Amino acid sequence: MLINQHRTLSGLNVFLVILVGTVLCLGVYLHLPEKLTPVLFEPGISNLLGFQIGAELSPQSNVFITLILTILQAFYLNRVVNHFNLLGKPNFLTALMFMTLVSVFIPFLVLSPTLICNFITIWMVQKLFNIYKHADVKGIMFDLGLLVALGSLIYFPFIVMLLLIWASLVIFRAFSWREWITPLLGVTVVYFLLAVCYYWLERMNEFYEIFRPFTYSLPTRLNMDVHDYFVLIPIVVAIGGFLFILKDNFFKSVVQVRKSFQLLFVMLILIFGSFYLNPDKSVNHFLLTIPALSIYLAYFFTYAKIKWFYETLYLIILATIIYFQFF
């Protein structure tokens, strides 16, 4: 079965992960609109460039490129998880869970700013997990600040990841004011250079518009069909299983692994909290939660012991995703 197969590092799993991802995107591929124009960057960048990248892509190319990008992200995240031994044993479950979760909602399967930002999210997670063993992390903190600024220019709510950097310092490090200031300097450098460009072009009013999301009111609804919530039920069950297993294994794990899971939880909280910065209040925002949730589900399926239960649960997840894509 799929779960037991992906508990190993067999080369066959590379093919299976790609196959699962391809099958799970068939629903959107077969029901494409005639015109599908991706928005890949915030106005802060697209207005400066004067054009929108990807505007000439056909809907078929849009979905195909999205599939390729998600596959690359899945294997990149899987490599990070195995490198830091978060699951206790190397396997391909993180990649499998990633390809599964990115197919939960149809908007996840087309090009979007959050899809591009997930590369930065995984890169940041890799760097954040790495600070535990470094004596001096100011250089890493500055780089992380640059990544946050870059991500926020692609998708502005990504700016909340600055708080994640500071949270990582609380979780992994003793207090040092220099380490807290450095990521802020990285963010400031990027926005200062952007402000210089806008000032040079005498368009400072457009630069100030970048920060308008901070004035948005808290959202009261999500632009999602009520039937889409049903696809989340088996995933919520799996998350419940993860919490149950983590409760038993948490203090048996090494310190770095425990702290890493805490950091992922903070990341989820910040992403959900930053939803109000999303002008469209669309479900695409939650694509940013996929890396953390993939690791959580991979942990559950790595340590779940009742074979018929976890194999059946995963098949139900697949079946509900496919059903709601086609019906």
Question: What does this protein structure show overall?
Answer:
It is a single chain. Helix content is 64%, strand content 0%. The chain is built from 15 helices and no strands. The mean pLDDT is 88. The longest helix is centred in the first third of the chain and has 25 residues. It is mainly α and 327 residues long. It is globular. Helix 7 runs antiparallel to helix 8.
Overall pLDDT, averaged?
Answer: 88
| DSSP E strands, number | 0
| Envelope shape | globular
In which range does the helix fraction lie?
55-70%
Low-confidence stretches: none
Largest sheet: none
The sequence of SSEs as H and E is HHHHHHHHHHHHHHH
C-alpha-based Rg, rounded: 20 Å
What would you say about this model in short?
It is built from 15 helices and no strands.
What topology does this entry show?
Layout: H1 2-6, H2 12-24, H3 26-29, H4 43-49, H5 59-83, H6 93-101, H7 113-130, H8 138-154, H9 161-172, H10 177-200, H11 204-209, H12 233-249, H13 255-273, H14 290-303, H15 307-326
Helix pairs in contact: 2-6, 5-6, 5-7, 6-14, 7-8, 8-10, 9-10, 9-13, 12-14, 12-15
